Amino acid sequence: MITHKEARAILQRLTTSESLLRHARTVELVMRAYANKLGEDENKWGNTGLLHDADYQAYPEQHPNVIVNLLREQGEEEMAHAISAHYTKWGVSYNTLLDKALIACDEITGFVVACAQVRPNRLEGLEAKSVLKKLGQKSFAASVDREEVKAGADLFGVDLKEHISFIINVLQQHQEELQLQPQESNQS
């Protein structure tokens, strides 16, 4: 199995965008936390989250085939399959819990980060009900596919509100690293 260090090297070779790197890290953190909660392989789940969009910047027209093929060449079939399936409209089957977890965590984790970024307190005090309300506003983070969010939660078998709360909790534990801590007050 590829190590976390090897996965980070692959990501950094293919991705330079700070927002994509942060997205990769946030999905990695959420996937690791779910692996821990469910008794799954944290390294495999975390690396899958970290690498799911690794080729998106360098090869947008071929995404996710470049990273999927690279992982297959390294014998990482389970990770490759999950990444090949992380968008329901690609028509790839969901065979494992890893496949379902990635589809469930990708879009909504990005959406939670978008919600945090528009708040002065960022992740601090962010609640699932606020995120759900924002999901209803189609103009907010318009590139997030709301159907994917729902389909992912359904496939993974989680209540969307509880899922969002879990994601918020995980990201709050890493808010400084993710640069999502509350903004400092300018008052003296």
TrEMBL record:
Sequence ranges assigned to domain HD in this UniProt record: 21-103
GO molecular function, one term: hydrolase activity
Pfam (any one): HD
InterPro entries (UniProt xref): HD_domain (IPR006674)
Keyword Nucleotide-binding: no
Domain of life of the organism encoding this protein: Bacteria
UniProt keyword terms in alphabetical order: Hydrolase
PANTHER family, sorted: METAL DEPENDENT PHOSPHOHYDROLASE, METAL-DEPENDENT PHOSPHOHYDROLASE
Name the UniProt record assigns to this protein: Metal dependent phosphohydrolase
